[in-house]
TrEMBL record:
CDD domains: PCD_DCoH_subfamily_b (cd00914). It catalyses: (4aS,6R)-4a-hydroxy-L-erythro-5,6,7,8-tetrahydrobiopterin = (6R)-L-erythro-6,7-dihydrobiopterin + H2O. Belongs to the pterin-4-alpha-carbinolamine dehydratase family. Its EC number is 4.2.1.96. Keywords: Lyase. The keyword Lyase applies. This is Putative pterin-4-alpha-carbinolamine dehydratase. InterPro entries: PCD_sf, Pterin_deHydtase. GO terms for molecular function: 4-alpha-hydroxytetrahydrobiopterin dehydratase activity. PANTHER family: PTERIN-4-ALPHA-CARBINOLAMINE DEHYDRATASE. It comes from the Bacteria. The keyword Zinc-finger does not apply.
Length: 103
């Protein structure tokens, strides 16, 4: 069964839920978007490395970029034509990794 794009109502509820556990998520150009900030470049790169291993495992990859101590993330499911449950799961995983590295 193909992955389904979330309805506007589902997406609004998902954004509220995501931001209750880890703030910073928004919708920009129909993509879940967040900027993670770290102390140093190596922390940002470590975050990306850990997340990349998970992304490969689940075969779902973010649109992201890194500039020194910041990682900008955009999540969308291209074959669904928008944000799906896959993106929500990846957002939660990324927030968990960030929380574990920020202790």
């Amino acid at each position: 069964m193909p992955t389904q794009k979330l309805t506007p109502e589902q997406l609004a509820g998902a954004l509220v839920a995501l931001n209750q556990t880890a703030s910073g998520w928004s919708l920009h150009n129909e993509k879940l978007t967040k900027e993670y900030k770290f102390t140093h470049f190596q922390h940002a790169f470590g975050f990306m490395t850990i997340c990349a291993l998970y992304c490969e495992k689940v075969n779902h990859h973010p649109e992201w970029s890194n500039v020194y101590n910041r990682v900008n993330v955009q999540l969308t499911t291209h074959d669904a034509g928008g944000v799906s449950d896959k993106d929500l799961a990846l957002a939660q995983q990324m927030d968990g990794v960030y929380a574990s590295l920020s202790r």
